[in-house]
TrEMBL record:
Catalytic reactions on record: guanosine(37) in tRNA + S-adenosyl-L-methionine = N(1)-methylguanosine(37) in tRNA + S-adenosyl-L-homocysteine + H(+)
Residues annotated to bind S-adenosyl-L-methionine: H293, D331, L332, D359, G360, N390
Family: Belongs to the class I-like SAM-binding methyltransferase superfamily. TRM5/TYW2 family. Belongs to the TRM5 / TYW2 family.
Comp. bias intervals (Basic and acidic residues): 491-507
HAMAP family per record: TRM5
Organism of origin: Phrynosoma platyrhinos
Localization per record: Mitochondrion matrix; Nucleus; Cytoplasm
UniProt cross-references to PANTHER family, sorted A to Z: TRNA (GUANINE(37)-N1)-METHYLTRANSFERASE, TRNA METHYLTRANSFERASE
Record keyword Transmembrane present: no
Protein name: tRNA (guanine(37)-N1)-methyltransferase
Length: 507
């Protein structure tokens, strides 16, 4: 017979008993024990107190639905105390969670793990098979709590597997310590940054360097974010944040080192089996343009000419040369010019690429013009001519250089094709780019051009590429209206005298 009056006395101590019970049966035996003590959920006394009080207490604390709620809450989240942390303290991320497990003989571990792989727990750096400190011949297999039903059992197929191996299908709970190493970068940053604020773990990888574009609300945590990115991405040893937009003529940007080795900005990358080396702090490189590099190169055939006006360190020029094209590559930035030459040698195409360190306009009016005159004067020419202008912030403004660049008349219908990259914030970026190009060229490109979306740079900002064959009326100077006509500025008598001399030359 239950003494309910006694129970009322014990009710205020319910929380205390719960804490003591969990410490006794789910905590570690000592503070420095490597393996937590585990206890089966059912079939064991949870406290020296016997009777209905112990039974009631056990049900209120350890029912499977409540256990799963606790698991789901803690398994993916570091300890709440890390909220607002600005200097990384890895030890603060430790927490203990309860996970479901099965206890098996060690001699069947390998076969059983393969058979149960769909229901095993999956966390970064987490062992799914744990030794039993109380029994050398037994092991704990940790299970994914989402794969355990509310009644505390596995699915029929998994139970059949356990039965095949003569394993008791009863689920036990294991008190697991999670550390910083077990959490993903996104989980860590979500736990640190204020609730409700956007968390991003995306970055551009440039060799061993992670290049981030942090938002204003993330800046107070910038050094912590940089270190987390390094910790959670193999091979990354330095994290930097862009601190301004690319507005300089040299196409580089100011950056701040967030974490890691700030002394080594010289990096090496590979793109489509070609290698590029450069000082990332002094030149421009964007791995997100890899697809665009490939697209442009696919338009070229061996023997074609490529004039790369803003070549950078060579992502268009070098693969074109590898394709046996004749390449003229230019960049105004002395550092880009240096690394462009280096990368041509590195990829063994230095004899196929002529490298220039000039302003884009001077390059077009000088070396490009000279080669165009030579190529367009040939009666039979099988090669195509391509001009790439990959300076999206201002390349479209250089198109006016082509107006009447050449003298004479076209002797070939195969005129150069221009590929010009630019940014657009317009609702209709293709129309916007075409209209701006037409304004610089002084002619309509309707039906004569194609506009491709390269990538979305930012909300309401797209990088586009407009390709078109230069119209003859743009590239060539029109014939003078006075050609073959007497100069009206000359006096009539002088014009008459010259004519007579030609008809009746003096002996």
């Amino acid at each position: 017979m239950i003494n309910w009056r006694s129970l009322r006395i014990f009710r205020p101590l319910k929380g205390l008993f719960a804490g003591l019970l969990k410490t006794k049966y789910f905590g570690t035996t000592t503070s420095n024990t490597s393996f937590p003590v585990t206890r089966e959920l059912w079939g064991q006394s949870l406290h020296p107190l016997s009777g209905h009080l112990a039974v009631a207490q056990r049900k209120s604390i350890f029912t499977m639905p409540e256990m799963l709620d606790k698991i789901n809450l803690g398994l993916n989240n570091p300890h709440p105390r890390v909220r607002g942390m600005t200097e990384l303290n890895r030890d603060a991320f430790k927490r203990e969670v309860v996970v479901p497990a099965v206890k098996v003989n060690k001699d069947i571990i390998n076969k059983l793990v393969k058979s149960l792989k769909e229901v095993l727990i999956k966390r970064p750096g987490l062992k799914r098979v744990i030794e039993d400190p109380e029994d050398e011949g037994r092991r704990f297999i940790l299970l994914d709590p989402h794969k355990v039903s509310a009644d505390g059992s596995l699915g029929e197929s998994e139970q059949q597997i356990l039965k095949t191996f003569n394993v008791n299908p009863e689920i036990i709970k294991y008190n697991l310590e999670l550390t910083y190493d077990h959490f993903k970068a996104e989980e860590i940053l979500q736990a640190v940054l204020p609730e409700g604020q956007e968390v991003t773990t995306s970055f551009s990888r440039v060799g061993h360097i992670a290049h981030l574009n942090l938002r204003d609300h993330q800046l107070p945590y910038k050094h912590l974010i940089g270190q987390v990115i390094i910790d959670k991405n193999h091979g990354i040893t330095c994290a930097v944040n862009k601190t301004n937009t690319i507005e300089s003529a040299y196409r580089n940007f100011q950056m701040e080192v967030l974490a890691g080795d700030e002394a080594n900005m010289i990096t090496k990358v590979k793109e489509h089996y070609l290698s590029y080396e450069f000082d990332f702090s002094k030149v421009y490189w964007n791995p997100r343009l890899s697809t665009e590099h490939t697209r442009i190169i696919s338009l070229l055939k061996p023997g074609d000419f490529l004039f790369d006006v803003f070549a950078g360190v060579g992502p268009f020029a070098i693969p074109a040369a590898k394709k046996n094209c004749i390449v003229f590559a230019n960049d105004l930035n002395p550092e880009s010019y240096k690394w462009l030459k280096h990368n041509c040698s590195l990829n063994k195409v230095d004899k196929k690429v002529q490298v220039f360190n000039m302003d884009g306009r001077d390059f077009l009016k000088g070396p490009v013009k000279e080669e165009l005159v030579k190529q367009l004067s040939l009666k039979e020419r099988k090669s195509s001519l391509h001009i790439v202008m990959n300076l999206p912030a201002m390349a479209i403004d250089f198109l006016d250089v082509f107006q009447h660049l050449l003298d004479g008349e076209p002797s070939s219908t195969e005129l150069p094709t221009v590929h010009c990259h630019c940014f657009s914030k317009h609702d209709n970026p293709a129309q916007d780019v075409q209209e701006r190009a037409e304004a610089c060229l002084g002619t309509s490109l309707e039906g004569l051009c194609s506009v491709e979306l390269v990538r979305n740079v930012a909300p309401n900002k797209d990088m586009m590429c407009i390709s078109f064959r230069l119209p003859a009326e743009v590239l060539y100077k029109p014939p003078s209206p006075l050609a073959g006509v007497d100069n009206p500025q000359e006096p009539e008598s002088k014009r008459l005298r010259l004519t007579e001399e030609k008809v009746n030359p003096v002996a």
